[in-house]
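Researcher: Good morning. I'm working through a list of sequences from a screen, and I'd like to move beyond sequence-only analysis. For each chain I'm collecting a predicted structure so we can compare shapes side by side. This is the next one on the list. No need for commentary yet; just the structure.
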Amino acid sequence: MKAAAALTFAFLISGWFFSASADELVTNTQEVVSGNTAFAIDLYGRVKGGEGNLFFSPYSISTALAMTYAGARGETAQQMANVLHFPARHEPLHAAFAALSTELNAIQKGGKVQIRVANSLWPQEKYPFLPEYLGLLKKYYDTSVTPLDYVNASDAARKTINDWVEQKTNRKITDLIKPGMLNALTRLVLANAVYFKGKWAQQFDPKETAEQPFHLATGKDVECQMMVHHGRYGYAAGHHLQMLELPYVGRDLSMVVLLPNEPDWFGVLEDKLTAANLAQWMNALQETEAVVFLPKFTLTRDFNLKQTLAAMGMTDAFSEGADFSGMDGRTNWLYISEVVHKAFVNVNEEGTEAAAATGGWVVAKHSPEIFRADHPFIFLIRDRDTGSILFLGRVTDVTARGLS
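Model: Good morning. Structure tokens for this chain:
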């Protein structure tokens, strides 16, 4: 009987180690960031169907799957690389993820915002995982390794992992792994948790917040608490779209809001959201005086990504023919049983807490611009230096917290 490796995420090899020059590392990191962005947009395109708000952490998902990819071989590894947009060579990938983690840790140490990333491995007690595999994850992903007994106490193991996720996300992500997801066949759980809390560089005055209508794409209006601030922001405007960047204190991280000019154009915006278009739109941002109207909102969303990732082309990883021999040296023995993800975000006057069409742009010169996010919009939280997208989502109805 085959053993199942269950993967979980919180916003959830062989024995060589890679050494690169500083220039090579920068180039490799840029390649990985570009790949992670492409995967983020691809995944958004897959999970956007249906109604409701949406929020997830592409960075968390990519990181946890990179740790799994480290043990993949053959066609399994090729499929994962294609779906995740990982580079052809294993070695630079893990060093690049380590560099991204170092960047976020440096931001955290700056004391302006809280941004914490934690990785953990939870192997079955006494299961013979290769020391080279465990060592690689420890070197590049700073993983903690805690053996658990899935054979005799799978529910107790589930609660232990959930407690770790809850603690690492400041209690914003709870009950990540649902009852019954782990069983006596589970051999490894990989978990990644990302927590972010930052204050706006230009905070909204709570006294200015007032109840105003939010226009749904259906034509219906709902009431929301609308914040307002007059200041200078990165701003761009196109035929169908306005775009605004709101930095957090320290200006290392920012939220970017993509707002269609009309509520019923939201579907067009989603269709035009590609990695290439997003890069073009970001390049169009210029500092402009603007009056910003942004609703307060809180979202929580869970995902089981197994079927989604398989539909994207990562089929072998979830089948009994998977090749994760880089983990334990045995072919066709380990496979992924589940990939779950959960994310939370709260946006208010002080800042943000989170636990996850191509055209000629004309930047308006007159002042001030009016940026009124009173209808559905897409938003993302990113590292301004590397461009890495930490969180990505949409707000279609500010009265709804999200969908489970």
